Q: What sequence folds into this?
DNA sequence: AAATGCGACAACCGCATTATC
DNA sequence: CGATAATGCGGTTGTCGCATT
């Protein structure tokens, strides 16, 4: 026996909301609030909608100060940074982008940013559906060398984890490209770990976050790294509860409180200078990268990668060119970014992390 | 002009977590 | 303390409009 439905499916309307429904819901909530009970709300105002549907409509569309339209470079950068750090925790990411909803960000990632970063056309849903029925088609979708191994690996790893691996590899590839002429290239840096910075669930209250690994645990979020080096996302900013966000970062109509590049305003959002040494800060800082380039860290690379890649043979017409080969930190296998990631993800590449016997740990349990 | 493919976005679904009794 | 309801969240699907064939 499954879970009882939250509402009578037969009597509720589904599909797009009409302007009349929007007006009803908006007017009621603006006047009375939600009353703390979404399930009862539609009956109160005579809407033939599921309470969950009303909540979603309000949060994603009708709520004041919702931003629609194109994302700015700063917003893209924050999304990418956080996605690499924590994966598809859209609600947390959305908490850093006032006016944006998790649904918006999720859609934007899936339709635009992912392609931009991974540099290949993502298979359409139709193509993916075909691929599910035909393994050879799946390989075809993962065009390029190593498609078969990629498809195989995809069975073992969630798409989110896979994307994060690819993002890291591409960034690492760029890093190697940068360092091939640098003396430090002789000592390949440790790869940034891909562990999520916080347990999948439950997420503890902000003060309780105790990073297990300082290297993993700090996410430097730099809306524009060329303006803001070393701003860190504090654990408080990673609090999942909407209440926490609302109280600290309320989208106050009068306080349009996000001004990219403005440290004071950013502090309101939970960004604080890394120099504060906040022990609960979370970082996805690639220690070696930050150290080597004295301020040029992974997020600067990300910025360059997104917007300035031409200088290192990067994005051109949205297509990411072949990347330099990557070296496993143990000095072992030399792998190509696209071709062999499945090899080293299945092999026991040691990232020098805290995850057990050195086995690669995505930090994902999917 | 019609059919098809595709991208973008809104909305739904179901599971996990939290609150309440 | 367990059961149940409510809420939050992330993944998935439906739909629409535009581009291409």
A:
């Amino acid at each position: 026996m499954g879970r009882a439905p939250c509402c009578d499916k037969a009597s509720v309307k589904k599909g797009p909301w009409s302007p009349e429904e929007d007006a009803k819901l908006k007017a009621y909530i603006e006047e009375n609030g939600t009353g703390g009970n979404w399930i009862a709300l539609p009956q109160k105002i005579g809407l033939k909608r599921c309470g969950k549907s009303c909540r979603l409509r309000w949060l994603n569309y009708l709520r004041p100060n919702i931003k629609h339209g194109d994302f700015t470079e700063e917003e893209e950068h924050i999304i990418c940074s956080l996605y690499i750090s924590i994966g598809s925790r859209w609600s947390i990411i959305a908490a850093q982008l006032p006016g944006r909803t998790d649904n918006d960000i999720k859609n934007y990632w899936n339709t635009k940013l992912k392609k931009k970063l991974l540099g290949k056309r993502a298979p359409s849903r139709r193509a993916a559906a075909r691929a599910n029925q035909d393994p050879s088609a799946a390989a075809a979708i993962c065009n390029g060398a190593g498609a078969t191994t990629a498809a195989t690996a995809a069975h073992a790893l969630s798409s989110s984890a896979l994307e994060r691996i690819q993002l890291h590899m591409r960034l690492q590839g760029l890093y190697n490209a940068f360092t091939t002429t640098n003396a430090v290239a002789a000592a390949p840096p440790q790869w940034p770990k891909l562990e999520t910075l916080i347990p999948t669930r439950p997420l503890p209250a902000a003060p309780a976050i105790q990073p297990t690994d300082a290297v993993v645990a700090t996410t430097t979020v730099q809306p524009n790294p060329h303006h803001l080096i070393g701003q860190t996302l504090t654990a408080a900013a990673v609090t999942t509860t909407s209440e926490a966000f609302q109280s600290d970062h309320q989208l106050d109509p009068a306080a349009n409180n996000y001004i990219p590049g403005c440290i004071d305003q950013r502090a309101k959002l939970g960004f604080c200078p890394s120099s504060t040494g906040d022990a609960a800060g979370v970082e996805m800082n690639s220690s070696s990268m930050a150290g080597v380039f004295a301020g040029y860290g992974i997020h600067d690379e990300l910025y360059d990668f997104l917007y300035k890649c031409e200088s290192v043979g990067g994005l051109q017409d949205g297509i990411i060119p072949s990347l330099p080969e990557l070296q496993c930190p143990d000095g072992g296998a030399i792998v190509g970014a696209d071709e062999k990631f499945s090899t080293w993800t299945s092999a026991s590449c040691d990232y020098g992390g805290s995850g057990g016997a050195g086995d690669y740990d995505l930090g994902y349990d999917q």
Summary: The first helix of chain A runs from residue 19 to 32. Chain A has two domains: 19-62, 71-366. Residues 200 and 364 of chain A are 7 Å apart (CA to CA). Residues 4, 6, 15-16, 36-39, 51-52, 55, 88-91, 102-103, 106, 125, 240-242 of chain A lie near DNA strand C (CB under 10 Å from a C1').
